[in-house]
Amino acid sequence: MSASTEAAPRIQQLSTSVINKIAAGEVIERPASVVKELLENSVDALSTRIEVDIEQGGAELIRIVDDGEGIHPDDVPLAIASHATSKISAADDLFHVQTMGFRGEALASISEVSRFRLRTRQADQLAGVEMQVDGGEMSPLQPCGCPPGTQIEVRELFFNTPVRRKFLKTPATEFAHISEQFTRVALANPRLHMVLRHNNKSVYELPATDRLIDRLELFFGSQLAESLIPIEKSSGDLRVWGYVAQPRQSKATRKGQYLFLNGRWIQDRSLQHALTEAYRGLLMVGRQPIAYLFFEVPASDVDVNVHPTKSEVRFRDSQQMYRLLLSTLRNTFLGMDLDSPLSLRSDDAGNRGSAPADVQKTQRELVDWANDQLARWKPTEDLSDLEAAMPEPPAAPAAPPAPLPTFDPPTTDATTDVTSPAAPGDNADAPAGPSAAAPAPSAPPADLPETPRALQVHDCYLVVETREGITVIDQHALHERIMYEHLRRRVLGGAVEVQRLLMPVTIELSSREAGLLLDRTELLAELGLLVEPFGGNSVMLSGYPTMLAKADPAELLRAVVEQIDSAGQSVTRRDLLDSLLHMMSCKAAIKAGQRLKPEEIDSLLAQRHLVDDHHHCPHGRPTALTLSRAELDRQFGRLG
Q1: Rounded to the nearest 5°, which phi and psi values hold at 411?
Q2: Which of 74, 106, 199, 468 is deepest in the core (most CB within 10 A)?
Q3: Which of the two residues, 359 and 222, has the higher pLDDT score?
């Protein structure tokens, strides 16, 4: 039969099973979506304690136990019925929603694509009720013994929709998403006692507290918590309160911005834009502020029924919220001293340039004194970091001692990273003299005199005389290219030299960041970064590439996890590896504002001609600009 004579398909009513599977596709994207819906139900049940147990990233088991009000025995079968809810009863209630959930789709969708079991008991009932559902097929209710509250088990998620199960990521990645959902609920409800376990190991044990800052410190570390600025402002029925981070703490993405509306985590472009505007001029281009903000708005002024997951909302007057947040943050910043505290650590060096002149003078005096004291006992600095970039490394490298901090203050440069790296210690296998550390090419380049003369300008640029004129070299860009080429060759050849740490470095991350990092341990090992779990949201760095001796291991690892996070899950392994190589070479390279000794300049210039493309840094910026002798003569009027 031809296509023209085929009968058109008739309209038919979909079955309840198909409807629930379609709803599951909208609401239940991954195990973390199940955790979110069940946690919100526990919060709505007025629980005081919630325990979450996860196995294999949630693909095998999700168990959530609360001590809330429980479900009446007669209402248990309705719990898994579509659009059955106790939160609303009329359409007008949608504009006065006070609870986390209200759509009545979550349990129906979850039970349709899993092996589902619910146990519940109200405080005035002598026994509980148990209900089991396998892929939407409900078994008869059974009495059971259980404490007051509700216990829900979700096993073998997507067992009857194998296509959905196939798209799940690794257990570590899926658990990272679950941990993020747990974090959002825990931050919005600090008075709840909450527990999270993965594969029978405790990840979080959060006692109830009245202080949000305690939760923030547990999740994100004491270093970040100490830099948080409390804010609070009311305007009529609107109120905003919470914490924002000092400008010296920032991220490459918006993942550090937590916005809560009436206790519900939300995403809102208008509020995020107000946050960005408030930090304008305080953060480098491309960096995003960190904030934990809570908005309280009358329920009638916001519509939370615009997205199946309720993560997006619609305000009756979004401009009023925008102005409240922007004015609150700007007034807070205007009344504060946002200068970074004086620190001789390398990771704070980039912030010192914003201090007033008198503060900079005091810092320079302290730096000069420290240099004078340090010069009395520190060993002679070698060029181990430049030497590591040479094609022929030493045959038997020995472990260098811990690097000594450098006290050279950088000058301010508006467009260049001014972080001052730590100077390396003596390398046992490094040649003692500068000539050994910087072997010259077998034949000098055609455009370079036999004895090139170089001058460092503003501790940032190298001016070199050539036969044709002068060349101005960006020392950071050139060294970054050298480091990138050498590290790339080592990674591709599987020969990255790793410096094992006698005392491993522990780094506090958010639970989501820790999960993303631990999910890439094999890739990081190829780069020479040996990362292991350390419990909770901490990871342990037990080794890092020898050639990156000047980089701060903790800061390097934080930058790595930001790079992984910003790359997203869809990035290919090759692209992620290349982006990490770019970032690591940038972190380890000589910085603008770092004074170089003559032998270091000579070594850097010698290696300029040993890389494939010394004209550009890995990010595409030029490493050198040339001014010809003819152009110089023309500018000075020496042409006849």
Answers
A1: -90, 155
A2: 106
A3: 222
d(CA 528, CA 498): 5
Per-residue model confidence as pLDDT tens digits over 499-515: 888 888 888 888 778 88
Burial 142-154 (b: 16+ CB within 10 A, else e): eeeebebbbbbbb
CA 324 to each of CA 235, 275, 486, 557: distance values in angstroms, whole numbers, following the listed order: 7, 11, 51, 36
- Maximal CA-CA distance, the chain: 109
What angle is formed at CA 500 by the lines to CA 497 and CA 503, rounded to 5 degrees?
Answer: 160
Question: Distance between CA 415 and CA 390 in Å, rounded?
Answer: 29
Sole residue written with tokens 């007057």: 317
> Could you tell me how far CA 393 lies from the centroid of its own chain?
34
Q: What DSSP string describes 258-306?
A: EEEETTEEE--HHHHHHHHHHTTTTS-TT-EE-EEEEEE--GGGEE--S
pTM over 0.90: no
Cβ atoms < 10 Å from Cβ of 493: 8
Match 């239940």 to its residue by tokens.
28
Backbone angles phi, psi at 622, to 5 degrees: -70, 145
What is the rounded CA–CA span in Å between residue 277 and residue 292?
16
Residue 225 carries which DSSP code? H
The neighbouring-strand residues paired with 53 are: 63, 197
Give the C-alpha separation, 38 to 81, whole Å: 15
pLDDT in tens, 4-30: 556 777 787 777 777 766 766 667 889
**Distant-in-sequence, close-in-space partners of 567: CB < 8 Å, separation ≥ 6:** 575, 576, 579
Q: In what order do the strands lie in the sheet with 498-508?
A: 498-508, 538-545, 530-535
DSSP of 101-151? --SS-HHHHHHHTSEEEEEEE-TT-SSEEEEEEETTEEPPPEEE---SEEE
DSSP string computed for 573-625 = HHHHHHHHHHHHHHHHSPPTT----HHHHHHHHHHGGGSS-TTB-TTS-BSEE
User: What type of residue sits at position 204?
Assistant: Y
DSSP 570: T
Q: What is the pLDDT of residues 396-431, one digit of tens each?
A: 443 333 332 332 333 333 333 333 333 333 333 333
Alpha-carbon span 173 to 54, nearest angstrom:
13
Structure tokens given for 100: 């986390």
For residues 406 and 374, the answer to whether their CB atoms sit within 8 Å is: no
Cα distances from 146 to residues 78, 120, 358, in angstroms, run 20, 7, 68
